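Quick one: co-fold with flavin-adenine dinucleotide.
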Amino acid sequence: MAADPVDVLVVGGGITGAGIARDAALRGFRTAVVDKGDFASGTSSHSSRLIHGGLRYLEQYEFRLVREASRERRVLLSMAPHLVRPLSFVLPSYRGARVPAWRLRSGLWLYDLLAGFRNVGRHRWLGRKATLRLEPGLRDKDLRGAALYFDAQTDDARLTLATMRAAAHAGALVASYADVTAFLKPDGRVRGAVVRDVLTGHESAVRALVVVNATGPWVDALRRLEDPGANPLLRLTKGVHVAVPRQRMGNVRAITLTSPLDGRVMFVLPWGDLSYIGTTDTDEDASPDDVRATGEDVIYLLRSANWFFPTARLSPRDVVATWAGLRPLLSTGEGRDVAPSDASREHRVVESAGGLLTIAGGKLTTYRLMARDAVDRVAISLRALDGRPRAARPPTDRLPLPGGETADLDGLVKAATERGARESTARYLVGAYGSEAAAVLNIVERDRALGQAIVAGRPELWAEVTHAVEREMALRLSDVLIRRLHLFYASRDQAASAAGVVADRMAAALEWDAPRRAAELADYGEQVERSRAFAGEVARLTKP
Ligand SMILES: Cc1cc2nc3c(=O)[nH]c(=O)nc-3n(C[C@H](O)[C@H](O)[C@H](O)COP(=O)(O)OP(=O)(O)OC[C@H]3O[C@@H](n4cnc5c(N)ncnc54)[C@H](O)[C@@H]3O)c2cc1C
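Sure, here it is.
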């Protein structure tokens, strides 16, 4: 991308930047996209992993947002059926709760209405007994009943990666570990950026007609890089999740709760043999690079969940993994008078005096619409610059993401078992790769040893490490263990014991020398430690 100027340089390889790169490349613009870390290493791998209309936004009367998000839920279910899956939710109602049953009922009716009654299914109201039959672990004292309703769950990191790969297939030039350190302003206007290769330190100039700042919680930092006096656009709020063994938690489906501690809406969500609980929502001043779960966050989440699942008696020792991210919410100028959970999830595209386009706000669910709005602005700038005819908006809602070409997931599972994969392995591979599960099996066919599990008792295969390096641009150990395979979140020791052997395989594939291998292991170890740093704080906070 440093060789020839591009039409548009997108800074940020989270879901927003990936979506913009895909849309721009599909419009025929010469597009480049860079991220200072791995793709999705920012907020886009630290979300609640929901593709949802946003039931709780009804409380803020954000009807337009809910309608838009509901439509996008339908679009994403069809663009990537392997990565975006329907999920049923139980929303229990208790006597004396902040939101009374009648309001819940009308809210859910409106939720289905705003989805044009085309959600995965319509909500139903369950009596007390029926609720406990579905979710026997739920607190029964004062339980009046529950709503059963539908949304969808995704793998946020893999959805971002699939979108980035779709951008690359459409012709975008993509680079991870490529940090924008300065802007090129030859004529006072932003005309590209200085990009530092984080792994080698090498710097290059990428020239571009238009630059888009899609750096999520970093957008204000990047704006200040162009104009030190730029006004902040964002209000950053931190959200933390903890993952615990599902058997301990006791939920069968997804559960929507209002925390007994502060009345905020939160979730207990199923993820294989784990459940994750989240999220917190607190104003945060720390840099997005330093955000992590604290002892206080973990105690809040566990206490809230324990109230609803009294036999779970979860303690911080049950926590398998934590993750924390900063929501890049639009600042409304009302400062902190509005509670973090009530801050708007809308998005906005802003152009600086020097021509830098910044997209701020939004959510994972609506990324395709955000991307479309941003690229519409890019198109206007390009037309003003060189008079080119306006390119039509591409049908980004109808083009499947890689792996999402078919909705017949059972057919894909059958094809995989016919090639010798066990049923459970086939289901896991199809869930992660869709039709591209075949590519992982091709690797196993080349070398049968790669059909073995990386961690005994878990489904992840050695062939996936090869696939991640060869097809998914994994460059670092954490790219594989955290964002491609999720062993960091799912295995009891956060893959600490497997890290060495995975590093060996990556070292062979990527020609790492011994110091690089050691550095990768040290970096991964630091990330595991960071996700567990809450433990010491909990001990201090709970000392009698
Ligand atoms: C706790 C939590 C839960 C959430 N749950 C949901 C949910 O369930 N559903 C939903 O729809 N939304 C959810 N969201 C919102 C959603 O996750 C975010 O809106 C979305 O991921 C933001 O994506 P992004 O691409 O804008 O930002 P990011 O994913 O943060 O991407 C920005 C990228 O920019 C890169 N970058 C920064 N500076 C530079 C630089 N100088 N040079 C190059 N690259 C740079 C970073 O490395 C980063 O990868 C949640 C958010 C949080 C925090």
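If it helps, The first strand starts at residue 6 and ends at 11.
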